Please model this.
Amino acid sequence: MTGRPDGMSVTVGLLFGAIAAVGLWSAVGTVDWALVGVGLPVALVAIGVLGINISRHQ
Model:
């Protein structure tokens, strides 16, 4: 499969991956919510830009 990846699938996959990472972090140790409060918005913007870039028509 050499076509472009589906932008929505990549975006949703990365979003659920981030949620799973925080859940795993919570299960293993103590979550630093101040770090999550800064990192989550940055990650959401990066995932959104990546999704827009992938789904953009040439």
